[in-house]
């Protein structure tokens, strides 16, 4: 019995979506790739994970054809990856397996540590955006290859693409560590309990003034009628 309890605790505390499905994107493109063996498609094909993988599975260590890694001679903070959903999707959360280059690559520490997300509709319009989101780097020892969970406060519908922009990374921005990337991503059509909550980017001041003006105009029309 004592051996079973820790396993049960891990299952119960892992972020979950109640009565929601998990799914992978239909396509992926990126700002750059080290070469064809490290392209964006590696983040959506389950490479490095078991067949029928889920959020609790451990990703294999960094190797060709199981990671997206950016090209040499690029600024890591200018890099992005965009996942697409044919026909549109309902999204309430996502799981990210960060880059597993720690103590594997000869020049490790590629992992993003700060990112932005933009959810796009079928014509490229922004449905929602989130910035300043922290992503933990993979540890050099202990449990590695685990996913990190992020949740929206409500499900977004009609999502045709999600763009991930790298805003910060663990290693250097120049020299032998001037790379970044991810291992895998998985989405859910429900919000996640126990996950990192994404805070939407607030409207700029001009947008708030416009909304206030529109609200005032509506109120004036009501008073006249």
How do you describe this structure in short?
This protein has two helices and nine strands.
Task: Describe what this molecule looks like in 3D.
By secondary structure, the protein is mainly beta. The protein has a single domain (4-224), classed as Sandwich (Jelly Rolls), CATH 2.60.120. Helices cover 13% and strands 34% of the residues. It has helices at residues 4-13, 205-224, and strands at residues 22-23, 27-30, 68-69, 80-98, 112-120, 126-134, 148-169, 181-188, 196-197. Strands 1, 2, 3, 4, 5, 6, 7, 8 and 9 form a nine-stranded mixed sheet that branches. Strand 5 and strand 6 (126-134) form a beta hairpin. The longest helix is centred in the last third of the chain and has 20 residues, at 205-224. It is globular and about 40 Å long. 35% of the residues are buried. Residues 1-13 and 206-225 have low confidence and may be disordered.
Radius of gyration: 20 Å
Which residues sit in consecutive blocks of at least 5 with pLDDT less than 50? 1-13, 206-225
- The N- and C-terminal alpha carbons lie at a distance of 73 Å
Write down the CATH class: Mainly Beta
Principal-axis shape: globular
Percent of sequence in beta strands? 25-35%
Mean pLDDT level: 84
Structural class: mainly beta
How large is the count of helical segments?
A: 2
Briefly note the CATH topology name: Jelly Rolls
Largest sheet: 9 strands, mixed
Sketch the topology as an H/E string, one letter per element.
HEEEEEEEEEH
- At the fourth level of CATH, the homologous superfamily is Galactose-binding domain-like
């Amino acid at each position: 019995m004592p051996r079973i309890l820790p396993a049960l605790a891990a299952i119960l505390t892992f972020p979950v979506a109640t009565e929601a499905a998990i799914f992978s994107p239909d396509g992926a493109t990126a700002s750059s790739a080290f070469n064809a063996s490290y392209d964006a498609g590696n983040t959506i094909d389950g490479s490095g994970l078991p067949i029928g993988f889920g959020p609790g599975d451990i990703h294999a260590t960094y190797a060709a054809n199981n990671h997206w890694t950016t090209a040499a001679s690029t600024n890591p903070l200018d890099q992005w990856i965009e996942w697409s959903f044919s026909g549109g999707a309902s999204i309430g959360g996502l799981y990210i397996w960060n880059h597993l280059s720690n103590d594997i690559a000869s020049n490790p520490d590629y992992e993003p540590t700060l990112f932005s997300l933009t959810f796009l509709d079928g014509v490229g319009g922004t449905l929602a955006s989130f910035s300043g989101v922290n992503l933990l780097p993979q540890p050099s020892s202990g449990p590695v290859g685990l996913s990190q969970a992020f949740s929206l406060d409500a499900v977004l519908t009609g999502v045709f693409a999600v763009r991930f922009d790298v805003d910060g990374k663990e290693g250097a921005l120049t020299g032998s560590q001037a790379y970044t990337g991810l291992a895998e991503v998985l989405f859910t059509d429900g919000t996640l309990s126990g996950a990192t909550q994404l805070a939407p980017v607030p409207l700029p001041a001009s947008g708030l003034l416009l909304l206030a003006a529109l609200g005032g105009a509506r109120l004036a029309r009501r008073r006249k009628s």
